[in-house]
């Protein structure tokens, strides 16, 4: 089961950040970091129309781990970001969660394989064994950093998660205060336990888009390592 939850795709006049393009990547330098921080504080560059719109939306988005604060930001442009609901079933266990994706743009095009017609890139996947109702929010307001967060209910304890994509392509996830470096694998499966603790399983997946992520994850459910994890901890 795959369902689009929300796409925050906001387009403004000009990108404010210059990346140095090399053969395979973009360079996000220390100067870029300071430039970004200074522009966030520069009142003369704030988009006040966008700020007003965010104030109207902000009150409706207080149901997630991080209260969606409203900050003024300068104008920016982005290809768009979004999230998808995922549901898998294996060993008579339901595994539910969310994926976070970016649309193809100048900032991530170098990560797309050659001769690949995909228009989106999966950034990270958070799934919960015995997962139930879920909520998520993706935001481009930190451009060229991108952030997604959500909450997934379970049979034992809820799972709160945040994923952050930074401009140099690195991705990190925080799941109930456990930090994951997604260079070790974009797929994280959480198994809440009856004693109110958690177990986690992380693995790599091929480059994927929102069009094929369900099929890729279905293949992962056949892996012996995951089946062993579910037999041990999938209460």
Describe the structure.
The protein has 235 residues and is of the alpha+beta class. It has four helices and 13 strands. The protein has a six-stranded mixed sheet with strand order 1-4-5-6-12-13, with helices on one face. A five-stranded antiparallel sheet has the order 7-8-9-10-11, with no helix packed on it. It is globular. The protein starts with a strand and ends with a helix. The model is unreliable at 1-24 (pLDDT under 50).
What's the short version?
The chain has 235 residues and is α+β, with helices and mostly antiparallel strands. The chain has helices at 30-41, 48-58, 213-220, 224-233, and strands at residues 2-8, 20-21, 26-27, 81-90, 93-103, 120-129, 134-139, 146-152, 159-165, 171-175, 178-181, 187-192, 198-203.
Can you lay out the helices and strands and say which pair or pack?
Elements: E1 2-8, E2 20-21, E3 26-27, H1 30-41, H2 48-58, E4 81-90, E5 93-103, E6 120-129, E7 134-139, E8 146-152, E9 159-165, E10 171-175, E11 178-181, E12 187-192, E13 198-203, H3 213-220, H4 224-233
Parallel strand pairs: 6-12
Antiparallel strand pairs: 1-4, 2-3, 4-5, 5-6, 7-8, 8-9, 9-10, 10-11, 12-13
């Amino acid at each position: 089961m795959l369902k689009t939850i929300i796409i925050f795709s906001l387009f403004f006049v000009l990108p404010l950040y210059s990346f140095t393009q090399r053969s395979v990547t973009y360079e996000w330098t220390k100067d870029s970091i300071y430039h970004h921080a200074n522009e966030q504080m520069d009142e003369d560059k704030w988009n006040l129309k966008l700020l007003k719109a965010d104030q109207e939306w902000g009150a409706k988005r207080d149901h997630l781990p991080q209260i969606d604060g409203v900050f003024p930001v300068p104008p920016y442009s982005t290809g768009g970001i979004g999230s998808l609901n995922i549901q898998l079933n294996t060993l008579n266990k339901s595994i539910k969660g969310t994926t976070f994706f970016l649309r193809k743009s100048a900032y991530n095009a170098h990560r797309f394989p050659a001769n690949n017609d995909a228009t989106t890139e999966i950034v990270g996947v958070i799934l919960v064994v015995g997962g139930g109702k879920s909520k998520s929010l993706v935001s481009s307001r930190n451009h060229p950093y991108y952030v997604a967060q959500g909450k997934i209910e379970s049979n034992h304890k809820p799972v709160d998660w945040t994923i952050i994509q930074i401009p140099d392509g690195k991705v990190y996830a925080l799941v109930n205060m456990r930090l994951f470096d997604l260079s070790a694998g974009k797929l994280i499966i959480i198994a809440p336990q009856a004693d109110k603790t958690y177990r986690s399983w992380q693995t790599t997946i091929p480059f994927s888009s929102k069009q094929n992520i369900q099929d890729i994850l279905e293949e992962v459910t056949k892996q012996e390592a995951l089946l062993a994890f579910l037999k041990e901890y999938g209460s």
